[in-house]
Structures are given as structure tokens and as C-alpha cells.
Specification:
The structure is a homodimer. Chain A has 14 helices and 14 strands. Helix content of chain A is 43%, strand content 14%. The relative contact order of chain A is 0.16. In chain A, helix 1 packs antiparallel against helix 10, helix 5 runs parallel beside helix 6 and helix 11 runs antiparallel to helix 14. In chain A, strands 2-10-9-8-5-3-4 form a 7-stranded mixed beta sheet, with helices on both faces. Chain A has 2 domains: 244 residues, 3-Layer(aba) Sandwich (Aspartate Aminotransferase, domain 2); 121 residues, Alpha-Beta Complex (Aspartate Aminotransferase, domain 1), CATH 3.90.1150.10. In chain A, strand 13 and strand 14 form a beta hairpin. Chain A is an alpha/beta fold. Chains A and B meet through helix 1, helix 2, helix 3, helix 4 and helix 10 of A and helix 1, helix 2, helix 3, helix 4 and helix 9 of B.
Chain lengths: 392, 392
């Protein structure tokens, strides 16, 4: 019998990887509301409200704040294709897979890419950025990843933003794994272009890329000499659809926008500061619990993301088998290492509604049992005590 | 009070425009199934089945048949960025807004674009294509729109495909408004690259672009001298995610894929031939009814799409007011004219589950009443008799 004649199986799983993250039924139900036309009055009202809620989460007054019709990587491409013209020189920092991806994307836009790299697990060193800025005063912009999803490193932005703006350049920031889980200081630092994805701390299904564009970048884009190389991601047209004019560009993913709208409402209800504190406190409890189990974390405490934690796999433990058994025996998804970290770490996401005490307790208990089966003895009792000491 | 503190209003409307089209609750409910990881075993099984169902609807054996993570316009861009390298000469035909869009997109890929144009409301003349092929034997490909959404014109493809392949070129076809509503002869004509959108005759919400790529095009893409200018739409990487390797590229829009899967299941259950016949018969009933109301259709019967009908607005009737009142008094959405046809036509879509007798009766009755209020007398009784004569 053809498989499509059988019921589709979509089991409930606990998503504690780098994304997608758990989506609450409120958001899932919103996606199932009736499809409206992309120029319909009632839909346009939902778009307007969604933009206001995105501005709240980005903490920005930027009018050009939209949800691009693609995943987080489309957000990265949106930033590059709109800000870069062929032949431009740009500085792109990398401290992991997503910074390296941004270097690739910028190169595909015809940019001359100056790389500033840091080893995976460490943030980019502002001193290296300073050197690159001095050596390349003709560069147009600097791109950097705020929350590196491949390692769990939080990149401090203040010092670098000051240098970039001092040099008269634009600053492009990847906030895929930070937006909605911690402060993304768009207006405070005057960041010109910041993008994210719906499936991380915003706790919506994957498929939309929130993007906010500052006034200097809007002017820059409006004054381009050449067309944006991507028609689909061309902000000069998209700003006319999300703006008052409602100029038809492409058919927006209507039901995805409902889901994002509901997810953003949940953030507004919780309050940004409460939400950030919850992510932070749960992360601290997870870190304490993991260390009490005798596990080592990849990232120095000063640079750890509250949303994503990389754990080193002890000698003699098969990382792939561990992840397989977490799924098989506990229906828990965690992430593997990427690039040079493949096989050496697992990545644990506590994002959005997934950032809660029950998930921490479940995961620590599951990890403890599976590690014990492989001869790595752990003290789950004291790990759980550490968690409770922080959270209760 | 902030609007997000009030309930979100998403009223039921009857979508009889050029898309999005009505989405059945089965499909909406599928979108609300739990989000899974994009590399999860159970999700990957749904992707595999979705690919098989897409191959059924495209009537193709092409292994590289995928749903791109964007709307129909992203499908167009996928075709262009992957097939074209900077400096390539291409022939792009236009008989409406979407052909003109393809010319724009190809130009943004750095192609030298040879245009073959036809007036809106008519298909492209194969004799004009022949001339262009003779004058440009060095062109790499010909792009053309099968179902022009801005006019409702069906472009015959057989003769043109034979000429294009005779000249050793690739044929790229826009099937956004035809796939799932009528035959799209991918394998019969050996079309190298065909794309569509989820929100037309496939009757799913907007947000995915089904694309199928023939073996010659796959070879062509694999042997490119330069990187695909879009990282997000780069098929050389996407084929590794949809293939056995499951190479991580970007996070697929998981819940959108559930919806597409359910929509495709409904097509498989109905049977392609039954579905095409339903679209055809309902379109004929609509045409007969509209003509019985004294209205004139834009397109010659030989070139009319079963999925989309353009109706000329009688002298003295305000087109925008007519559409506004259809929405206000009947909650019916129809489309406006685009480009040169703005204010002169409305576009009526009967696509997917929207292609049914009740919608035809409702729309004809609503149109008749609204036209009568503006002094345009119609014979609704005989219009409904014509509809029943065809459908009952």
C-alpha cells in the first residue's frame, strides 16, 4: 500500500536541540486559522500588529521591521543581498558555522570578503576586529554573529559596534539564536541590520525570518546603484508591501504569519525582561546540573548563551549513539556538533517555552542514565539538587 | 489597549481570487501537528512521501523534486539562479506580469535577456519564439509561463518545447497556477525545470514552492563554473538535504511541509484525471454563467485556463468598488487586474477545493446583484440554468 494511504505519523517529541524548539499548542492552533488573502484588510491588520510586536522584541523604533518569507538563512541572505553591491569590500567575522556561512553568502553577492576568524567555542576578539578595520578603511560593513548556534557562544557587541560605527561602516548582526531569549540591543547600539529566525527563542515553527533595518541602512538600500541581486528578498519592494502602500510583491505565507503573531503575543504577555530572566536562570540551572554530572561545557561562563549550551562528550562515549538513545528511549532531540566539533559535543537548546525546569530535570536524568550504561558514572542526585537550589 | 491584548480576528472568507485559494480544514489541521526537528526520522519520512506525491502531481520521474522553502516567486528565482551563470544569454517570454517578472529575475542573475513578448490576454506566438531561437543560437535556455496568473491565459507548450530542445537549449516553465489543476507535461515534453506554488491549485497555504528538475538540468547545475548566487536557493546543496545524505542546509519549514503533504494526499485520493476534469468542467460552467450575465471574458476560449478566468468590467462600472462590495456584502475575494489591465478586469480563481458548484452559484448571484445596483441589468436566472445544464 502506498504510504499516503496510511495516517501520517507526527509523534510528540521534546525538542531540546538548536532549533526548531517546542511550539506551544496556542501557536500551532493559530497556524490552523483560515487562510486569508495576502492583501486582505483583516490580514493586513495582523501584519501591522506583527510588525509592532517584532519591534518590541527587537527593542527598536525601526519602521522597516518585517518577517521575510523564508527561514533564518533567508534572513542572512536578505541582509547581504540588500546591503552589498558587486565589488564592495566587507568584513565578515566568524566564530563558527554561521559566521562562515555569512562569509560564503557575502562572497556570492560579489563582495570582496575580509575574514576575521576566531576558533569555535570562543567569541571574536575585538582586537582582531580593530586590526581589520584599520587595514580596510574602504570596507562598507561588518557582519557578525551575536549568538553562534554551532557552539553556543555569545558574542559581546558593544565594543565592536563602537569601532565599526567609528569607522563609518554599517553593522550587520545575526541574532537567530538570541532574539526573544535575551537582549538584542538594536537601537541601543544603532545596529543597521539585524535578522533572526522564527524557530528559536521566538518558539514558532520554522519558516519566517524577522529582519529589522535601521534608517542609515534604509537610505543605503534606496540609493543602491544596482538592483538587489535577489528579486525575492529585495527590500526596496518588500518595504512597499509591509508599508502603507500595500504594493503587491509576493504572496506572503499567511498562516505562518498567524503563528508568528501568536508567538509574539505570548512574548508580550510574559514581558521581555521576565522572559530573558527565565532563559538566564534555567540556563544556569542546566549548567550547574551538567557540571554536577561531571560533564564539561565547551564555552567559558562569560560567553555562554542562555539559549544554547554545548556539552563536551566524555572520552569513550559515542556521541551519535548517545543522541540516538536520547531520542529512542526518551523522545528527546538534542543537536550534534557541526564542523570541527562533530562527534565531540552535543548542543542543548533551552529556548522559548522549552526553557523550563521539567525539561532540565528530564534531560539530566536521561543523560545520567544513558552515560551510566556506558560506564560513565554520574551523580544525578546532586545534579538535581543543584538545579533545585537555583530554581526553587 | 494594545491590539495584541484583544483576540486576533481571522474571519472565514471565500477565496475566489488568483490565490491564495480555499484551504480545507484537513490541511489546516495538518499544519497544527507538533513541530519535529528538520533532521528527525519521522519528519524525514514525511519529506520522502511528500517528494513522491509531488512527482505524482508533476507527472515526473525526476528524483530532484522538492518543495523550496519560499513562495512561488522563490520557485522562479530558484530556476533562474541555478540555471543561469553571469553573462549567459537566455530567452525569456512574457505574456503578462509573471513572464515580465522572470525577465527581471534573470537579469538580476547577470544574464543577457532576450525578450519575446505577447500582449496581455494572448499567449506567446510560437513563430516569435522561432525567430528568437534562430537569432540567438547561443542562448542557454528559454523561460516561459504556462499559466499566466495576471491574465488567465494558458500557454500551449508542445510546439515551443520541441523548438527549444531542437536548438539544444533548456526549457524553464512557470506552472504556478496550473500544477494540480491541469496537466503539466514535465516528462512528456522533457521540461528541464518547472516550478509552482503551494497556494493555487494545490490548495495549501502560501509558503512553499514545488520544483522539479530534469536530469539534463541536474548535470548542468552540477557542472556550473561559478557558485549559485543565492545560498538559500542553491540546489547543489538542497539536493543533498532532500536526498539520502540528509546533509544539513537550512531548517525546513516543518509545519508547512505537513500542510503540503496533506494537500497532496487529497490530490492523490481524488486522482489527477478526476481533479483536472473537475477544474475543467467547473470553469466551463463559470464561463457560461458569466456570458449569460452579459459579461465578456478577456481570453479566447482556446487559451483559457481552467483555474483562472479574467472578466472584463462593463463600461460605467467601478472595478475597485465592485471588488470591495463583493468582500463587504458576500465575504468573497476576487483579484484585480495587474499592470495594463488594472481597473479593466477582475480575476476569478476556481482552484483546488475552491473549484465547486456552490462557489460558482454564489459568485454569479453576488455579481448579478451588485451589477444590477449599478444599472447593469443581468439575467441571473438563465445564468444559473446554464451552470446547471453543464454541472447537473
Amino acid at each position: 500500500m502506498e504510504s499516503w494511504k496510511k495516517p501520517r505519523i507526527v509523534p510528540e517529541k521534546t525538542l531540546l536541540g538548536p532549533g526548531p524548539t517546542p511550539v506551544e499548542s496556542r501557536v500551532l492552533r493559530a497556524m490552523a486559522e483560515p487562510t486569508l488573502g495576502h492583501l486582505d484588510r483583516d490580514f493586513v491588520a495582523i501584519m501591522d500588529e506583527t510588525r509592532e510586536l517584532l519591534k518590541l522584541v527587537f527593542r527598536t523604533k525601526n519602521d522597516l521591521t518585517v518577517a521575510m518569507s523564508g527561514t533564518g538563512s533567508a534572513g542572512m541572505e536578505t541582509a547581504c543581498v540588500n546591503m552589498i553591491e558587486r565589488g564592495d569590500k566587507v568584513i565578515i567575522c566568524s566564530h563558527g558555522v554561521f559566521g562562515t556561512r555569512m562569509q560564503d553568502v557575502a562572497g556570492r553577492c560579489g563582495a570582496e570578503v575580509v575574514e576575521v576568524n576566531a576558533p569555535m567555542g570562543r567569541p571574536v576578539d575585538p582586537a582582531d576586529v580593530e586590526k581589520a578595520l584599520r587595514a580596510n578603511p574602504d570596507a562598507k560593513l561588518l557582519g557578525i554573529v551575536h549568538a553562534e548556534t554551532s557552539t553556543g557562544v555569545l558574542q559581546p557587541l558593544d565594543e565592536i559596534a563602537a569601532m565599526v560605527h567609528g569607522a563609518g561602516m554599517f553593522m550587520v548582526v545575526d541574532a537567530v539564536t538570541s532574539l526573544g531569549g535575551m537582549d538584542v540591543p538594536v537601537d541601543r547600539l544603532g545596529l543597521e541590520m539585524v535578522y533572526s529566525g522564527s524557530q528559536k527563542c521566538l518558539a514558532c515553527p520554522p519558516g519566517l525570518a524577522p529582519v529589522t533595518v535601521g534608517p542609515r541602512a534604509v537610505e543605503h538600500i534606496k540609493n543602491r546603484k544596482t538592483k538587489v541581486q535577489s528579486w525575492y528578498l529585495d527590500l526596496t519592494m518588500i518595504m512597499r508591501y509591509w508599508g502603507q502602500e500595500r504594493f503587491y510583491h509576493h504572496t506572503a505565507p499567511v498562516n505562518m504569519i498567524y503563528g508568528l503573531n501568536e508567538g509574539l503575543r505570548m512574548i508580550a504577555e510574559e514581558g521581555l525582561e521576565n522572559r530573558f530572566a527565565r532563559h538566564r536562570k534555567n540556563a544556569e540551572a542546566l549548567w550547574a546540573g551538567l557540571e554536577a554530572l561531571g560533564l564539561e561545557l565547551l564555552v567559558d561562563p562569560a560567553y555562554r548563551l542562555p539559549s544554547l549550551t554545548s556539552v563536551k562528550i566524555p572520552e569513550g562515549i559515542d556521541e551519535a549513539a548517545l543522541r540516538r538513545n536520547l531520542m529512542k528511549e526518551y523522545s528527546i532531540e538534542v543537536g550534534s556538533g557541526l564542523g570541527d566539533l562533530k562527534g565531540k559535543i552535543i548542543r542543548i537548546g533551552l529556548m522559548g517555552s522549552g526553557s523550563n525546569r521539567m525539561n532540565i530535570v528530564l534531560l539530566l536524568s536521561a543523560l545520567s542514565s544513558l552515560l551510566a550504561k556506558n560506564g560513565f558514572c554520574t551523580d544525578i542526585k546532586s545534579a538535581l539538587e543543584r538545579v533545585d537550589a537555583i530554581l526553587m
